[in-house]
Amino acid sequence: MTLLDVQGLKVHFPIQSGLLRRTTGHVRAVDGVSFAIQPGETLSLVGESGCGKTTTGRAILRILDPTAGTITYRQADNTTVDLASIDRAALRPYRRDIRMIFQDPHASLNPRLTVLEIIGQSLRVNQGLRGTALEDRVADLLRKVGLRPEYLRRYPHAFSGGERQRIGIARALALHPRLVVADEAVSALDVSVQAQTLNLLQDLQEEFRLTYLFIAHDLSVVEHISDRVAVMYAGRIVELAPTDALFATPRHPYTEALLSAVPIADPRLRGSRTRIRLQGEVADPARLPTGCAFHPRCRYADALCRAETPVLAETEAGHIAACHHASTLELRGITA
Fold this sequence. Notes:
The protein is α/β, with parallel strands linked by helices and about 325 residues long. The protein has nine helices and twelve strands. A hairpin with a 2-residue loop joins strand 9 (about 230-235) and strand 10 (about 235-240). Helix 3 packs across helix 4 (about 160-175). About 35% of the residues are buried.
């Protein structure tokens, strides 16, 4: 059964101008996003900065209020609730089930609090733990993420970036969530530390039966952790497929360009692939071009692309793309 079903999600921010602050337009940060996540799955949202992937994650957590759409969450008893339509007071029980790992391990931890206070805060509020019981629970969480329990009374400045992110992961897992939204969880870390953190997330997923919505801008990061990948551009999903299929046979030119930037591990093959460098910037969500939003940067664009907006359509089983020419283009992917 589906754990989370997002349909038609929109997050628009008003543009106000003049002395009277009248609304003259909207920034369409997320503009009709739909996807579903199965229990135990890792679905990755990827795309350039400004494509709307972080806003999507924050709307699911209701850090931001959706403008339209539904966010249907299936509870442990198999009943469902639309998180987009309930008020903030009613959201409290679901904040234990859906947690977030933030991008910046430095900014996301309060420098005035010890590790015990940072991780233990939600345990005190939601489970009433105090004293030795609280210390034992936090110490166990530290062990789970590969840190020593003696670090309980240290402050964040005493840790490296990778260790701080592990503290953030422990905080997210404190209440045994079912869904974790990892927002660029490794992008601020060194490459070697990224690999260690990704391995840790996979181990924790198996141990705690977690489901991940993994947000990243780098396809090489999501390749080994994801079951499926959704590529976003200008507030919309332009391609969604199982990871292997998306890497081997992309169906959208934007995905092809992102894949061309993925480093080749085999040094003998480096230089055998030409990177596709996109011209211009990501489409402005306040002034989207007519037709396909990607057409000003697409080397395959024609009159149809400039006139009509493509819709997501299935090209193969489980593989969908929003491109007028998805079935005819021979796009370059990455094969094992």
